[in-house]
Amino acid sequence: MVGEEIAVSMLVPSYSQEQLPESFVGLKSQQGCIGEMSDVEDETFNPVVSRSSQTCRIDLLEEIIEDAKDNKKILFQTMQSIMNLMKEVELQEAAAEQAKEEAARGGMDILVKVEELKQMLPHAKEANDMHAGEVYGEKAILVTEVKELENRLLSLSDERDKSLAILDEMRQTLEARQSAAQELMKAAEQEKLEKEESARNALAEQEAIMVKMVEESKILRQEAEENSKLREFLMDRGQIIDSLQGEISVICEDIRLLKQKFDDRIPLSKSISSSQTSCILASSGSSLKSRSSDLGSGQWETAKTPEKRSPTPSVDGQSPKSRSSDERSKAD
């Protein structure tokens, strides 16, 4: 037991009596009890008392042993925590020292790079000046070569223009001869084609007009239906607005009366305008909800109606605008 106390004092030298675990204090008190009991046994010794005291000492010894085991575990855990704390502190101190060293030499590294760049700048400028002289000399040579190439291209352009003029004269002569031959072949067919084309144009115009009239009739009928639905919608909305206007007028009148009573310092309990206003608001809210639900279904049906319209049919795969433009071009 004395060895354990020495180990405790070596591992945790800075703990006071209050900071040590309670088991350590109990252990010391039990050791004091054992010493006192041994003194009593020496003074008053007899067989019966010695047996009872021996049993008591054995039980107490067992308890002390168990307490010692617990104290050993506590000591081991305390030692482990202290060792972990020491490792953590050492790591943090090393990191702080390294950060301090890096901060001290961080600016120096940048200044060294600045000096290196300052030393490199004169050499780079000298190299650029030499290279600029070479580039400008080569540029002058290239300008001279460009002028020579331009002169050659101009001479080639003159020769090309002369050749094109000769070819154009030959083409005009050949086209005149070809036109004369084609006019002889087309003269007989032109009259027949013109008459057939005129008849087809007249038929196409009449068919297009008929189709357009049918489509306009359908569109007008659909627009009339939409106007009727819109009229009903506006009438219903007008009724809702009239109702809201009347209710708002009543509320404004209640507010005016309430302000008058407020100015006259009449208690609110003697006024029934607030209850009337709440009843009006509740009835108006329910009526508006019912009307809005009915109108929502009507608007959904109205929104579906334009989707059912079929696109304007065309004659011979052409729209009315394209047919009208063709007719105007033919008339011209």
From TrEMBL:
Ranges of Low complexity composition bias in the record: 283-298
Compositional bias annotation for Polar residues: 311-322
UniProt KW Membrane keyword: no
Region: Disordered, residue numbers: 283-332
Keyword list, A-Z: Coiled coil
Coiled coil: 58-102, 139-206
Residue stretches of biased makeup (Basic and acidic residues): 323-332
Organism superkingdom: Eukaryota
Protein name: Golgin IMH1
Species this protein is from: Gossypium hirsutum (Upland cotton)
